[in-house]
Amino acid sequence: MTRVVILAEKPSQAKAYADAFQIKEKTKTYIELKPDSTFPEGATITWGIGHLVELKEPHDYKPEWKKWKLDQLPIVPDQFYEKVSSGKWEQFKVVKSLFQKADVIINGADVDREGSNIFYSILRLTGVKGKPVKRLWINSLEKDEVRKGFNQLQTNEKDLLLFDEAKARQISDWMVGINASRLFTVLLQKKGFSGYLSIGRVQSPTVYLIYQRQKEIENFVSEPFYQIEGLFQAEKGSYKGLAKIKEKDKAKVQALMDQHGLKEREDIHGTVQSVDKKTKHQKSPKLHSLSTLQSVANKRWKYSPSQVLKTMQKLYEKRLVTYPRTDCNYITDNEFSYLVKNLGRYQEAMNVSFTPASTRPSKRYVDSSKVQEHYAIIPTKTVPTQNKINGLSREEKNIYSEIMLNTLAMFHEDYVYEETTIMTDVKGLAFKSTGRTEVKRGWKELFPKPAKSNQDKDALLPEVKNGEEVGARVHIKESMTQPPKPYTEGQLINMMKTCGKLIENEEDVEILKEVEGLGTEATRSGIIETIKAQKYIEVKKNVVYVTEKGITLCEAIEGTLLSSPAMTAKWESYLKKIGNGQGSKQTFIKQTNQFIHKLIEETPASIEKVQVRDTGEGNKKKYNTPIAKCPACPTGSIVDRYKFYGCSAYKEGCKVSFPKKLAGKTLTQNMIKTLCEKKQTKVLKGFKGKKPFSTALKLDQEYKIKFDFEKKA
């Protein structure tokens, strides 16, 4: 008798596998399958609970490694070991017992490097050796796909390479995290820092990129620039145009006006020199990868990247969509053929109706050579009933319909518009006007119209003829240069993918392109959640800001490789080589060790320049310590009351209090002291309204803090 044991990553995945077969028995820790053509003698499905085992902590190796001390660094064990994760011992015992009895073991964890890591880390800790191991590799949890996958099991050669890649990643991240976090924290604490820093190979450069953008915005000085704008009145309507000049110096623009004998606001005539019309076709968007879906969902519904991934996971487990953690925008002919078969039913489910422009595969969407482990996110063969759709949560409905309509758009007609360029001559000076007219909505009719369109780009131009005389008025138009916009949470995914744009070294740019920036499709949303949980960034109304703690981190790592996306990309590039059998796990861990030694050597000097900030963490004793004499009463002092500043004589009736934050800016104890003693501060940067702004603060007669915009920097 051949005993087959399948390990799924989590219970929901195990249930989806079991649903494809006949169940003999269900328990809390495993499911028994009845014999059938796939498993002639039955099979047992068991599961991890996510990470059932984890790397040991420093103090598991040596008790003295528990304390955060500089003289203990570097912390690098001779050999790395796993242990059962807290609270998961019962499940581990069952998995171990089933592995011991098995004749064949199947890895049914997620089909990526972390799935390989989860399976082999568990197998290694059970001590079971020498048994044949097979790999289940599927992109959908539908019953026929699951059965097909179990009938076409793969060998574990690729899986073992992915395990080496994942283990190298896990061990090096452990080494960097443990050593760098302790190194920077202890050095900063010696300078009076009261909190703790968590430093990571990917999370730290990610925070640093957001910090760079924030600094760019704060340091941006808006400057005026000048253009010549014409307002034209034709027989069939009015339109605007710009002359080909854009200068910071207004005098140069005025000189051009004088040269052509033009005066502001004077009613004169112009002549239409040319009308150029071009019909343009826009194909439907590419099929979704996880990151493109995360970007669209954040733009449309303000969903965070992790919210999108969680929702996708639920839809995947409900067998409505294919594998979520994919970085691919293409499908193969196999998927295309089932999409064509179901086209009518998909339209019905989405309550849309159109005649397909073509049912032949286009290389824009269907290309087997571009599909490696996983293809793009598309609906599965399972077409849901209206009842099933109505039973989805609002997030699930939104995400599912986006995937479905994005897939249907591939079969729809192009969006067609006419782009018109009018050149108008006024006293020998040419003015250019551009606009577009929608000819056919095509695939765009599947999606809601965006709330705002780019007014100038989409301006509707009136019908004009070549040589037509038009009424004209010209003036010098003054505009201000605008700072870069802060990142939204959805843009962070794209920022992580394309951080190569911020790198100057060409070789580094190529590596960043090859590995697609920071993190992987599967880990980026988790990294964003980590840096939020660490309080390095905060998200308000979908806009991302770096906190005081985040600024401390960035100033501490500035100039080191920990702030460099290029370093992270080089590591990721080598990790990929390990997964392809061209690199070595041992080499990678050795290089990480060298990097940590260099960091320990160089960091003490670089920490000298860091200004220690009050991050609101650490010792609570600082609360109730006097900051300044109360400006309103003779006996009280202003003290830090944890969530606000207030007068110590509140029991005697003094009601003076100040907020900890004002318009998105943290008010420090020094600012409050200055306000109490001098009744006003200097001009401060970093306030946030519709746009970031700078202002001084003053105390009014009722001891309330007011903005003082009149005070000049």
Would you give an account of this structure?
The N and C termini lie far apart (84 Å). Helices cover 36% and strands 20% of the residues. Helix 4 (113-126) packs across helix 6. By secondary structure, the protein is α+β, with helices and mostly antiparallel strands. It folds into five domains: 4-52 and 88-155, Rossmann fold, CATH 3.40.50.140; 169-218 and 488-607, Topoisomerase I, domain 2 (Orthogonal Bundle); 224-283 and 415-480, Topoisomerase I, domain 3 (Distorted Sandwich); 290-409, Topoisomerase I, domain 4, CATH 1.10.290.10; 620-708, no CATH class. It has 21 helices and 25 strands. The strands form seven sheets. The chain has a six-stranded mixed sheet with strand order 2-3-4-1-7-8. Strands 9-10-13-12-11-14 form a six-stranded antiparallel beta barrel. The chain has a four-stranded antiparallel sheet with strand order 17-18-19-20, covered by helices on one side. Residues 159-600 form the Topo IA-type catalytic domain. Its EC number is 5.6.2.1.
Give a quick summary of the entry.
With 713 residues, the protein is of the alpha+beta class. It has 21 helices and 25 strands.
Label the overall shape: globular
* CATH architectural designation of the largest domain: Orthogonal Bundle
What is the number of strand segments?
25
Structural class by helix and strand composition: alpha+beta
CATH topology of the largest domain: Topoisomerase I, domain 2
Relative helix content = 25-40%
Tell me the strand percentage band.
Answer: 15-25%
Mean pLDDT: 90
* CATH C-level category of the largest domain: Mainly Alpha
Radius of gyration: 31 Å
Give the strand line-up of the largest sheet: 2-3-4-1-7-8
The H-level CATH homologous superfamily of the largest domain, spelled out, is: Topoisomerase I, domain 2
Poorly predicted spans: none
Distance between the termini: 84 Å
Helical stretch tally: 21
The tally of domains stands at 5
Major sheet description: 6 strands, mixed
